[in-house]
Structure prediction request, 470 residues.
Amino acid sequence: MMNESPKKLSSKEKWILFFILIVAAFLRFYDLESESLWNDELSTWKRASLSNVSETIQFSRKYDVHPAGYQVFMHVWVKTFGDSEKSLRTPSAIAGLFAVLLIFLFTRKIFTTQIALASSWFLAISWFPLYYAREARSYSLLLMAALLIVWIGELYLKHKSKWYGILLGFCLLLAAYLHYFGLLFAVGYMVFMILRSASIKAHIIPLSIFIIGYLPWLPYLFLQQGYGPIYITLPSFFDFFRWIRLVLANSNLVLLLFSLTFAFAVFKKNHAFQSPISFWMLSLWLFLPWVIAYIISAFLFPVLTFPNMIIALPAMLILLAAVPLMVSHSRVLFLGWILIVTSFNIYDLFFDRQFFHSPQKQEIREAVYHLNQEANVDELIFVTAWDIDYLNYYLNHFGSDLHATSLIYEESDLSKIKSALENENHTQFWHIILHRRPQDALQVRLEEEFQRSQQKEFRGAKVSRYMMRK
Prediction:
């Protein structure tokens, strides 16, 4: 599987890698605060802003559906670097950049430098990893952790050093504490390593660190599964192909070419890799997380989402880069394939999605800014959101004197509005919707009992002003 003695990088290859990293850094850090934080990023901010690490861990244990690692890290980060949009997203951008380097280092161990450069290039310019590298969530760090595991794992296998074994153990813990799909990846990787060497003893150092280090959290893993996220729907058989298409620049042509070549490699056994085990390892890495997540979602509780499957992304991109070698060793074919995939990615990123020119996330900041401009300090403001502090985050950042009156979501909350209007002797109020939609019954009653005098819609948000009917 491993290239035993990879040649040193030539000057040309170093410059190509440097160029790839520069492009990756630009795409991940450029205008990082240009878009509003959306609901899930504001959730990251809220949990990271708790008073201390102990409170952050307790909150994750009781109310979250994820392990506490990412929130503890973000708590320390926010206390050190502040809670601006740019600050909150910077760890993901840094992790995203490291992932581009790590996929090169790992791929070069099992393939050629050519394929390693192509893999890192695809990771640098693909929309899917780029989107999460610019978001204050754990997915970009999860991607980096998965790549750290496989790279350190290869070094551990080659050098048989206990220090690499210790480092691998901590990388496994990093992934497992970042996200439960990181735990899935860590367990799967160690099972693969044990089966591959037919020995548990050979991996006792990383395995011991991993098991002992995760034992304290194990009871909360089972506790949290009892209240999984309600927004995840049951999986479809076609979700895998939709995800593959998404990763492949949303291109049916690239998906077709990749699928045909992959099928050719499977049935003709024309892998053209350093070792056939490389092909099968990557195939398992790509497919098994989907199979396991699908089974859990279908028979236990829904967990399968596209972001969670970022752990399978490196395998997809490495196979994508290796596709030409499954057919021929022609340099022209290889460069032509790189050009085709690059062209579709550039079109998807800059022309179809208009990544840096049109909103990619919810416009919560813009909605709150509009409210701040239009509302008076003494007016009532009712909020439909998962947390009232999501409104307060931007009100505070704008230095606003406005304050939210109450959260409203269901029909019974209409009494809160009427009571506040009567107590404050007001005849009008504002209603701002941030991500979470109010129940239809409440929306109908609002329109029936009050007259809407103003409304402005934003991506994922809405600001309305209502008056008492005469």
Notes: The mean pLDDT is 92. Residues 11-352 form one domain.
